[in-house]
Amino acid sequence: MPPSRRRFLRNAASAGLALPAFAQTGLSPNDRVQIATIGIGGMGFGDTRNALKDPGVELVAVCDLYTGRLERAKELFGDGIATTRDYREILARPDVDAVIIATPDHWHVPIAKEALKAKKDVYLQKPMVHKISEGKGLIEEVQRGKQILQVGSQYVTSSIYKKAREIIQSGQIGQLTMVEAWLDRNTATGAWQYTVPPDAGPETVDWDRFLGSAPKRPFDATRFFRWRNYNDYGTGLAGDLYVHLLSGLHFATNSKGPSSVYSTGGLRYWKDGRDVPDVMLALFDYPESPEHPAFNLALRVNFKSGVPDERFGFRFCGTEGSFTTSYDTLEMVRTPDESAPGYTIGTFTKATQEAFLKDYNEKYPEMVRQNRGRVVENSEYKASEGYSAHVAHHEAFMSAVRTRKPVVEDAVFGFRAAGPALLCNESYYKKSILYWDPAEMQQART
Ligand SMILES: NC(=O)c1ccc[n+]([C@@H]2O[C@H](COP(=O)([O-])OP(=O)(O)OC[C@H]3O[C@@H](n4cnc5c(N)ncnc54)[C@H](O)[C@@H]3O)[C@@H](O)[C@H]2O)c1
Prior knowledge:
single chain; alpha/beta; Dihydrodipicolinate Reductase, domain 2; 10-stranded mixed β-sheet; 6-stranded parallel β-sheet; 14 helices; elongated; binds nicotinamide-adenine-dinucleotide
């Protein structure tokens, strides 16, 4: 049982107070987890619903800065939940074991650090940090205490990436040489033009609290509801979306990260006042490590890509096969490594060709002398019907909260994805190659 709850139960019992819900049920206190959500917008609602799929989880409070969402939370989760605009009130509650933090990116680290200090377990939405400089401080805060912190890139728990990891680690596609990944969108909401509610105003929105450490400016509903479009609060395409791709890749390859990045792109279509690009491409060098051979990675996100629906995928290329993934499928083609080098002799004289072939056929007597077109396996893996990586990721978190065993996507894992992703933004703005030390998790000179 988390220490805070143990302490609370002891204090409550000695003070003769009514015990909380979990203490009155047939469930063992260890099975029962009381949560609160801080930042209950699009993802906060999704995360809360997914966490509540576990019958042992109870929502006790939510925090948000827009009144409409606090009211909506009561509509959805019942009048019994407490609501507040001040996350510190949530952290001060002894009946909260764990918090989901799904605020805009600039609030991730400040709230997560305070939550850890308040002895709450933390499900922290990605990207773990808003700035590279915040990474080590949060890792240290986690290491100082005994709390669980899991970052919310659900691909790390996805059955598709488990399959990808299994294929790579077992050598089924030979030696990994290159990986590409893409995310194509074509709609206004896909490009972060989220709806601004008609009642948005200084009365319903706590603008000053939203700004936090961001530069002060007058109330602006567009900035509040479409914060992803501004570097002051969001992290652009790289922080929002590359982070998912890097998390999935690092899990599948067991990698600590790249040694260099170069990113380019531009604001090609959604010129609505945003200060982040809507097309971004990045190239990464992954150095040889005990976990994997050196390979290259190419990522791209395009918010005006001419496709009818969102397309997301990875292609892993190895010396003996390749596979592509989407949200819920993995298709693999395996082809044997060449057993003979083949030849290109058509431009040589007849006599030279004959002499070459005599020699070649003696040297490579096997039937297979060239590899072109040979496929030894063509297979498809599908996630089971109704499978949700989001739900699975919450299950992983709750399991860690109950067992106190470490999570895969801890703060170090989260920063190993967020650090290089945010370096892409710096590379984009500086128009230069930047270097990263994946072991030390910091920018390097070369
Ligand atoms: N894992 C995923 O697939 C996934 C998907 C979407 C979003 N996300 C992440 O979730 C986070 C939230 O994104 P979203 O799309 O839900 O944004 P959103 O704008 O819909 O919701 C954010 C909410 O946070 C509230 N908020 C802002 N500052 C706050 C503060 N200091 N205290 C309390 N509440 C505060 C806002 O009022 C808003 O309702 C982001 O970090 C994003 O990267 C992850």
